[in-house]
Amino acid sequence: MYRDQHTQRMFSTLELGYSNLLLGCDRLLCLGEGATSDIDRQECREVGAALISCLENVRLLEDLSLMPALEHLAREDPVMRHIFRRLSAEHCEDACQMEEVLETLDALAGRCPLAAGYARLLFVGFARGMRRHVHMERYAMRRIVGIEPATTITQ
Ligand SMILES: [Fe+2]
User: Fold this and answer.
1) Long-range pairs of 109-115 with CB within 8 A, sequence gap ≥ 24
2) How many angstroms separate the alpha carbon of residue 62 from the centre of ligand 1?
3) H/E/C letters for each residue in the chain?
4) pLDDT of res. 45
5) What is the pLDDT, as a whole number, of residue 34?
6) What separation in Å is there between the alpha carbon of 91 and the centre of ligand 1?
7) Closest CA relative to residue 70, chosen from 155, 139, 151, 148
8) Torsion of CA 125, 120, 27, 110, to 10 degrees
9) pTM listed for this prediction
10) Domain segments of the chain as ranges
């Protein structure tokens, strides 16, 4: 268990980052669910900028705190090993999907005649996948610091 002040501080900052990332996902979900050829260009630009900034911030913090702690615990704990492998794989997938989301937001903001249905599927799929990913990371983080995950995770 990691109860030292440095880890606690990093995890608190990471919690804030996750909250912001989930808000970005909510905005993307709204944009996706209401996507038509008449989509709000400014909203596309803002959502894209907010999402990439949140994701980069969270990734940096995860690389400095969550992932090393998980990797360490994974040596002894099969549950943590499974979580570590899964989260590592999801990070690679998320990076590729995020690029696709940003390109699509750019295309929509620039009035590219892109099918709204495609944007809808992409945005909704990404936002839901990212939410699941963040909930798993929060679960792992709370387990690491010794908080009972089952009673503290909010879906
Ligand atoms: Fe992550």
Assistant:
1) 109/41, 109/42, 109/44, 109/45, 109/48, 110/41, 111/41, 113/37
2) 7
3) CCCCHHHHHHHHHHHHHHHHHHHHHHHHHHHHHCCCCCCCHHHHHHHHHHHHHHHHHHHHHHHHHHHHHHHHHHCCCHHHHHHHHHHHHHHHHHHHHHHHHHHHHHHHHCCCCCCHHHHHHHHHHHHHHHHHHHHHHHHHHHHHCCCCHHHHCCC
4) 86
5) 78
6) 6
7) 139
8) 130
9) 0.83
10) 5-147
pLDDT in tens, 4-42: 788 788 888 999 999 999 999 999 998 888 777 677 778
How confident is the model at residue 37, as a pLDDT? Answer: 66
Measure 90 CA to ligand 1 centroid, in angstroms.
7
pLDDT at 152: 44
Q: Which CATH class is domain 5-147?
A: mainly alpha
Structure tokens at 4: 């030292």
